Automatic annotation (TrEMBL):
It comes from Datura stramonium. Pfam families: NAD_binding_10. InterPro entries: NAD(P)-bd_dom, NAD(P)-bd_dom_sf. It comes from the Eukaryota. Residues 110-271 form the NAD(P)-binding domain. This is NAD(P)-binding domain-containing protein.
Length: 305
């Protein structure tokens, strides 16, 4: 790295090379750059880099690091080249405990950010994708990709096998909620407040998206499964972790939220399962969140008043 300075890392820290995200495809752009993360804090330091980049851009490209790096990090070997799981593995999954998180759109930009945050937490991940091979090349065996039509009941049954929670990073991927039996938590990222706040031509352009968002929220609330609906402001391409937040009612119709922060909040929501349901608005603002579990507990308490 060009520096002999030593870093003392505790058990809950990791020290890894940085990736770059280009047009949705993760590429190794600066293999000599590194960062470290201290526990739950997203305080990252990048070395050998001439410009400051976003939080997600700094996540290690260990996904493409090869067998040696995968084993060092604790991942299994790559799946067979045909992209298939063995019949034995697929059959035995029915008997496994529910420990996985399903991301309903692994091709979506925010969905990919969610996946990367889950990988950092060493979570078992499933993802609905269009192309299984492409997903495997992008994420290796850190993710179990499932390709097909989300409206297909047999596909959903397979996708939800062994799943404890579902994260929906965008509208239009919720269907057949009767297949959700056994789920412990559903997290929905919603821009309904933004669509409702639109007017004129913009309201016409977003009419279909608004209808889909309303339908998704209604299905989640009627499912009987504990849910967290995160109503964001306008989602924008901005580095995450640099700004604070605003959770005031009505803020989402006018404010903005970094896509990276939106993905991060979805993942943090996994650790706090409401008894019935939680709906809140969030945009980037001035309030700093030091403890997300405490933050979600406060939001739940306010929603019950």
């Amino acid at each position: 790295m060009g520096s002999s300075a030593a870093l003392s890392l505790s058990a809950n820290q990791f020290f890894l090379p940085c990736p770059q995200l280009c047009s949705g495809n993760w590429k190794r752009n600066n293999p000599s750059s590194f960062f470290f993360s201290n526990g739950d804090k997203r305080s990252l330091t990048c070395f050998s880099s001439n410009k400051k980049i976003g939080f997600m851009d700094q996540i290690l490209d260990y996904i493409e690091g090869g067998p040696k790096l995968r084993k060092w990090y604790g991942a299994p070997d790559l799946l067979p080249k045909d992209g298939s799981l063995s019949e034995e593995n697929e059959a035995s999954e029915e008997d496994e405990g529910r420990d996985a998180v399903l991301v309903t759109d692994g091709d979506n930009e925010i969905g990919q950010m969610v996946i990367l945050s889950l990988i950092i937490k060493r979570t078992r991940i499933k993802a609905l994708v269009k192309d299984k091979r492409v997903a495997m090349e992008a994420f290796g065996t850190y993710v179990e990709p499932i390709a097909g039509d989300a409206r297909d009941r047999s596909l959903l049954k397979k996708a939800l096998s062994g799943v404890r929670a579902v994260i929906c990073p965008n509208e239009g991927f919720i269907s057949n909620i009767e297949s959700w039996k056994g789920l412990q938590h559903v997290i929905l990222l919603s821009q309904l407040s933004v669509y409702r706040g639109s007017s004129g031509v913009q309201a016409i352009v977003t009419a279909n998206a608004r209808k889909q968002a309303e339908q998704d929220e209604s299905l989640v609330m009627a499912s009987g499964i504990p849910y967290t609906i995160i109503r964001t402001g306008l989602l924008v391409n901005a580095p995450g972790g640099n700004q604070g937040f605003n959770f005031k009612e009505g803020c989402a119709s006018q404010g903005k939220l970094s896509k990276e922060d939106a993905a991060f909040i979805c993942v943090e929501a996994l650790d706090t399962v409401p008894q019935k349901g939680l709906i809140f608005e969030v945009v980037n603002g001035e309030d700093k969140v030091m403890d997300w579990k405490e933050c979600f507990a406060t939001l739940i308490e306010k929603s019950e008043l």
